[in-house]
Design brief:
1 helix; single chain; mainly beta; about 45% strand; six-stranded mixed sheet; about 200 residues; elongated
């Protein structure tokens, strides 16, 4: 079942945000934190739908540059779902996912060495285009062994200048709102008078 949010923007705020080149940004919670701008849009309007499906790909990256770094996918990526696991072999090849691990988590079995696990997610933004982009990278590299990534149906929404998708972000984003879709499929909210 898809999850959807609708962001409505008051006309005066819309004019200000556009004139000052703000991006409408979305981030997805994984393991209790937000680490990557999943999507950002400059072509938003007064009513902005955003939706996603529980379709993921697991990858690894050698680097995580906090707050402003661009995520690179240094390994191949594989389609994976909660309750599945994939092996990153000693050569750095991500093998196809198989059943295993916690039912609500995505498990990486790391045989390669120090690496930052990451997830891409499939979403459709206000422009109606479906995209699969990085939505999470673990800030700390993991050693060989097992790591579990647990996506949560919560998104952070905010406006920010000079930022794009697949950019790392910090936990203290100014004027952000968190929308909880763990128990519902649709949430609507309004941005008005700067809030």
């Amino acid at each position: 079942m898809p999850k959807s949010v609708e962001i409505q923007i008051a006309l005066n705020d819309l004019e200000f945000l556009k004139a000052n080149q703000y991006q409408l940004c979305f981030a997805r919670m994984v393991n209790g934190v937000y680490t990557v701008v999943w999507q950002s849009y400059s072509d938003y309007l007064q009513d902005n739908p955003f939706s996603w499906l529980p379709l993921y790909q697991l990858f690894g990256t050698n680097n995580f540059t906090a707050n402003g770094g661009v995520v690179t996918m240094d390994t191949n990526s594989v389609s994976i779902a909660p309750g599945e696991q994939a092996v990153l072999d000693p050569d750095g090849n991500m093998e196809p996912a198989v059943t295993g691990g916690p039912a609500d988590g995505i498990t990486m079995i790391n045989q390669y060495g120090p690496i930052h696990p990451g997830l891409t997610g499939l979403s459709t933004g206000p422009d109606g285009v479906e995209r699969a982009l990085p939505m999470f990278v673990a800030p700390l590299a993991i050693a060989t062994g097992t790591d579990v990534l647990t996506p949560v149906e919560r998104v952070r929404v905010w406006f920010q200048q000079n930022i794009g998708p697949s950019t790392t972000t910090n936990q203290d984003v100014s004027m952000a709102v968190e929308l909880d879709l763990t128990a519902v499929d649709l949430v609507r909210t309004t941005y008005s008078q700067g809030n």
